[in-house]
Design a protein that fits this description.
Blueprint (H helix, E strand, L loop, with lengths): L1 E2 L9 H10 L7 E2 L1 H9 L10 H6 L1
Parallel strand pairs: 1-2
Helix pairs in contact: 1-2
């Protein structure tokens, strides 16, 4: 899992958790330790406006 320095909106604990839990046999995280620490501490949950519900209803 590559975790580059990115927008804080993308560096969430939920994204890190998803990456870790989807690994089947092994997980290698490539990142700056500060980025990983930021993600662990970032508990913000953003509402995602993807329009998926609208698209599925059509």
């Amino acid at each position: 899992m590559v975790l580059p320095q990115a927008s804080p909106m993308l560096l969430t604990r939920n994204l890190l958790y998803t990456g870790i839990t989807r690994a089947k046999k092994m997980l290698i995280i490539i990142s700056n330790p500060k980025t990983i620490e930021y993600m662990i501490q970032n508990i913000d949950i953003k509402k995602r406006n993807t329009g998926l519900e609208y698209k599925m209803r059509q």
